[in-house]
Amino acid sequence: MARLIDSNHHASLKDYERIAHLSNDVRDLREEAEMLLPKLQGRRVWMVNSTAHGGGVAELLPPLIAMLRELGVDANWLVMESDEDEFFRLTKQIHNLIHGAGDPDLGNGAHALYEKVSHSVAARLAEFVEPNDVLVIHDPQPLGAGALLRERMGLTAIWRCHIGLDEETPETIAAWEFLEQWAVKYDHTVFTAPEYIPRCLAGRATIIHPSIDPLSNKNRDLPVHKLAGILANGGLITATGPTLTPPFEERAQRLQRNGEWAPATEPEDLGLLFRPIVTQVSRWDRLKGWLPLMQGFVKMKEALKTNTLSEEERRPLDLARLVLAGPDPESVTDDPEGLEALKEVMDTYLSLDPELQDSIAVLSLPMTSPKNNALLVNALQRCSDIVVQNSVREGFGLTVTEAMWKRAAIVGSPAAGLRQQIRPDLDGRLVRDAHDTDDIARTLTELLLDQERRDAFGLSAQQRVHNEFLVFAHVRNWLRVLAETLDGRAAA
Ligand code: UDP
């Protein structure tokens, strides 16, 4: 029902300090920590979420916790567990509702089920925590358990909600009506954007942006030979000579014309190192806007048949390929919605003309080794001239942060989380709407024809991530929230 996770983070503050463009960030962090730490003395901090692998939260906790620890905070990570599948179906429905999607009717037994599981999770968490500790609960799954512990043990509790929508709809109202009784029990809450704070928590929330770790396997710099080695070992290109490292145990697969999965170098090399590449990497989820992206790219290619561009101008558009990459379906068999979303992507791809099928690659990335998966995503993003995130809804979108850090030119939808990151026409482009396939086609065409603009977007995007969305700012913000919440408790 609750498991202590050893996040096994690889880098120490000294490693970051050695890197020229990061050393000031570490210095600022140390200075601020020195000021704030006395307020936290002797308190243990427990971060609690519902999964140790997969998705944005599991991605950002390890470096956050490791840095807090190195600075002197006794920070720990617990994952709640439950074998009640119905409970996770319910919290998935609530998750979708907070994003404005799905059936607002949560069903008769929902409150009783949520309460029952929350009680048993709270009982397990109680074996770890003490009244003097600080509990940081992530997202709706462990929200109830945290509220119960706050009530029972009097410890300080903060709820960190990673999801949200910038408008109120019948769906969001249903979700917040369900969660309110638990959320209001917390000392404080944290959201990703001001627009996401529900009415019931107005005045009791702080904004903290998620962050990426510049030294993680997903984001670290890859010198050319490493990049090529990863692509070859991971099955995305064919090595023409011997490689230093052996092939990954599991390699990337590409959807073939007959509907089967085969090595990603079949039926021919994708051209990742030589062609203009447009990429989206995401979970297979309808809210990621896969279909309109594919249709927009198809429109761009089809327009080539009739437009009057010179040969030289046509070339980048002719050569461009779209890469749609997501997790190996074998790894998401417990996510029927995800498998359906992938099936829609596959069906749409299979319905295309062979020529268009050649210019689009639907890729399945192996998930059994988190390290190899992260390296493959890193390498793919670095091979991409344009990284798209065409989400219909997005709480934040770490995939965009990751690509901005790598100076890719970004095309985003106007989903709220992406607007937190991409300043339109400065760090990248925002299409009018995730479903506007004409605008997607137009935007991709313009950017593929304009290397200078892509470079300018990339430079600006990297600066923005450096200033706002690296783990250093994230840790500083958490130190402030922890200190202020404890101050608030003391004053009360
Ligand atoms: N991701 C990955 N492999 C995949 C698909 C996604 O490692 O095949 C990662 C991606 O790089 C990012 C995270 O999963 O770090 C997704 O976070 P994001 O905030 O973009 O969206 P979420 O999945 O939380 O909705």
CATH superfamily of the largest domain: Glycogen Phosphorylase B
The CATH architecture of the largest domain would be: 3-Layer(aba) Sandwich
Query: How many helices?
Result: 18
Name the CATH class of the largest domain: Alpha Beta
Determine Rg (CA atoms, Å).
23 Å
Uncertain runs: none
- Report the strand count: 15
Question: Main sheet: which strands, in order across?
Answer: 9-8-12-11-10-13-14-15
Structural class call reads alpha/beta
Residues in helix, %: 40-55%
> Strand percentage, roughly?
5-15%
Subunit structure: Homodimer.
Enzyme class: transferase
EC number: 2.4.1.245
Keywords: Carbohydrate metabolism, Glucose metabolism, Glycosyltransferase, Transferase
Please give a handful of descriptors for the protein shown:
alpha/beta; Rossmann fold; binds uridine-5'-diphosphate; Trehalose synthase; EC 2.4.1.245; carbohydrate metabolism; glycosyltransferase
